[in-house]
UniProtKB/TrEMBL annotation:
It is found in: Cytoplasm, Cytoskeleton, Cilium basal body; Cytoplasm, Cytoskeleton, Microtubule organizing center, Centrosome, Centriole. Residues 556-574 have a biased composition (Acidic residues). GO terms for cellular component: centriole; ciliary basal body; ciliary tip. This is LisH domain-containing protein ARMC9. It comes from Denticeps clupeoides. Residues 554-574, 607-640 are annotated as: Disordered. Residues 436-555 form the LisH domain. GO terms for biological process: cilium assembly.
């Protein structure tokens, strides 16, 4: 009876605790009154529940020590009152704690100019990085700060410029206040709430364990099938070796193998082993196969198509541009796609050679935004294939229009994105590289990449890849050498970007421009070797070896600026997302795509068959080295 009374008192205390925490004050008083009338005792509610954590002295003391730069008081309170499990496992708290260490480290430089105090704190920060902070060294966001202890004057170093901006400390203060409010409130949560959360987690854990058990059963079956297959394969190899010695394989042996492969005695017994190939045919029949013969698409009337592209309504222009692009992007790679592209080129679809006053190419300058966007999409599709790039390279006006899109269209414009991607693919060709360098594309790219967080992933990937391709040329390296500090700052910042797909292209650009003596001198001035060493801590052997090559280039005294004279443009850069986010949608009973082309624009014998294209030349650089040949993000993604 005593145990029951104690448990009841404990439960009543938890209920009262929750009511007070939830500000159900009238209900809490009524509970106390009824318990008193019935002679039931209620334990005293802890002070932490009665105290509002948002106005507590603890939070005030933490914020005061933050503003005063008193790191000793701050981290003593922080360690005492922020739960250890949160500091060790909560990524938000870990990230905040990292930046708090930076705040207290640079505080003397910002507010007192006390060098001795800064030197003392930088040693504390170094110790933090080597102990508790070491876990974050794998994050690209924090890697640059691991070089902070080795930089003599962080106030003028480009990598740490934002730490000394007026907005940095207020932003950090706001994040700290928000963290303290939620964390201290959570630590003072009533026991009833904690119990409920614990029960919910137990229910979720039970469900996850059931799912895990199911997955383990499936995995065990797959693993058993795999082991069985390996065993059968080994026996078959032994049997093949035995036939070399003249030993025969009996039908009974083959039937036993088939029982193990099919897992079904009746199926194995139905196989006629006297007829060779029966068993293998049944095995192959269980695997879906692709048709070997791919038909060519119907021929089109290209003269009528071009006339309607020029004189048709805006809606018809867009529908035709979409249908023609789909014919190229959705055709099957190989002879079918080759025949489509060769027909487009042979009939000069974009009218590069036309003497007419109005041409299809002039749609790039058309007044309607959607027509311009679909023209840019079409050009991007052409630029995805080697022969398409060769065709596009015939027109200087096309390149100028693409560059105009870059500089005049909005940052979130689909037209600009397609223009950039097309330019990057065209930069695989030497003549187009030279034209882009002359037109100032390198300077534009560096300025755009300075604010990389505002760019979409596609824009960022192709902008960095285009910059690298242009930097491979002697002209491009010299253009970078005109303002080396700006270019190096942008490239080193990009090394820490969360988008890891850009890293090979950033490495390639750095390696290339560091062959210029003036660029190397500037890189040494900004302590680039220390920064690069920080990034080599990541667990990526290939990128680490690339960084070793970059450091070797940085420390070399070689003054040769090699320039690639070849034009090996054999790369298929057709991406799966070329047709994404279509603005044009057909209305009810309106023809579109291939149906539109084959219904209204059928022609006679306009398909152009061709021999098989080479699959591409082998790479001329080791995967250990930074890229030293022009490439696109899609090709590097497929071969990396």
């Amino acid at each position: 009876m005593g145990d029951l009374s104690a448990s009841e008192a404990h439960l009543l205390g938890m209920i009262k605790e929750y009511l007070i925490f939830g500000e159900f004050e009238e209900t809490a008083r009524q509970l106390e009154k009824e318990c008193e009338n019935k002679g039931k005792a209620i334990p005293k509610v802890p002070d932490s529940i009665l105290q509002d954590p948002k106005t507590s002295n603890l939070q005030k003391d933490l914020m005061t020590s933050f503003e005063d730069g008193d790191h000793k008081v701050f981290f003593e309170l922080w360690a005492q009152h922020i739960p250890a499990d949160m500091r060790e496992s909560d990524p938000v708290v870990q990230k905040l704690e990292f930046y708090l260490h930076i705040h207290f480290t640079i505080y003397p430089l910002k507010f007192s100019a006390n060098r001795a105090e800064f030197d003392e704190r930088i040693m504390l920060f170094k110790n933090y990085l080597e102990t508790k902070g070491a876990a974050l060294s794998q994050s690209a966001e924090f890697l640059p700060f691991y070089a902070l202890p080795f930089v003599p004057n962080p106030t003028i170093h480009p990598s740490f410029k934002m730490l000394f901006q007026d907005s940095w400390m207020p932003d950090l203060k706001e994040k700290l206040e928000k963290c303290l409010s939620t964390t201290l409130e959570a630590s003072n949560a009533p026991r009833l709430f904690t119990l409920y959360v614990s029960l919910q987690m137990q229910v979720q854990l039970a469900e996850m364990e059931m799912k895990a058990s199911s997955y383990m059963r499936k995995f065990s079956k797959t693993q058993a099938d795999y082991h069985n297959l390996i065993g059968v394969t080994a026996e078959l190899v032994d049997s093949l070796e035995a036939t070399i010695s003249g030993k025969m394989i009996s039908p009974e042996y083959l039937q036993g193998v088939c029982v193990r492969l099919f897992g079904n005695q009746s199926v194995a017994q139905s196989i006629d082993f006297i007829r060779p190939g029966t068993a293998s045919s049944m095995l192959r029949a269980s695997i879906p196969t692709l048709a070997k013969d791919v038909p060519l698409l119907p021929s089109l009337d290209y003269e009528k198509l071009k006339t309607d592209l020029i004189n048709g309504s805006d809606r018809r222009k867009v529908a035709l541009l979409q249908a023609l692009r789909w014919r190229l992007t959705r055709s099957i790679r190989g002879e079918q796609r080759d025949s489509v592209l060769q027909a487009f080129i042979s009939y000069d679809l974009l009218e590069f050679s036309s003497s007419r006053q109005k041409t299809v190419l002039q749609l790039m300058e058309y007044k309607d935004d959607v027509v311009r966007q679909y023209m840019a999409r079409m050009i991007n599709a052409f630029a995805s294939l080697p022969d398409g790039r060769s065709y596009l390279s015939q027109s200087p006006l096309l390149l100028r229009n693409l560059l105009y899109y870059l500089k005049k269209e909005g940052k979130d414009s689909v037209t600009r994105e397609n223009a950039l991607v097309a330019l990057q693919k065209l930069s695989l060709r030497r003549a187009q590289q030279s034209a882009m360098i002359r037109d100032g594309v390198i300077g534009w790219l560096v300025d755009e990449l300075q604010d990389s967080d505002c760019l979409s992933d596609i824009t960022l990937n192709y902008a960095v890849a285009l910059l690298m391709n242009l930097c491979l040329r002697t002209q491009g390296k010299r253009k970078c050498a005109e303002n080396p500090k700006h270019v190096l700052k942008v490239l080193t910042d990009l090394l820490g970007h969360e988008n890891h797909e850009i890293r090979p292209f950033v490495n390639g650009a750095l390696y290339s421009i560091l062959c210029v003596p003036t660029v190397r001198d500037e890189a040494r001035e900004m302590s680039m070797e220390e920064i690069l060493h920080c990034y080599s801590k990541e667990e990526n052997p290939e990128l680490n070896r690339q960084i070793e090559f970059i450091i070797k280039q940085l420390n070399s005294e070689d003054e040769r600026e090699s320039d690639d004279e070849d034009d090996d443009d054999e790369e298929d850069a057709m991406e799966a997302d070329l047709d994404k986010e279509e603005v044009f949608q057909p209305q009810l009973n309106e023809l579109s795509g291939e149906a539109l082309l084959t219904t209204e624009y059928l022609g006679i014998m306009t398909n152009m068959g061709r021999g098989k294209r080479k699959s591409g030349l082998p790479s001329r650089h080791s995967v250990d080295e930074p890229l030293q040949r022009p490439a696109t993000p899609s090709s590097h993604r497929n071969t990396g």
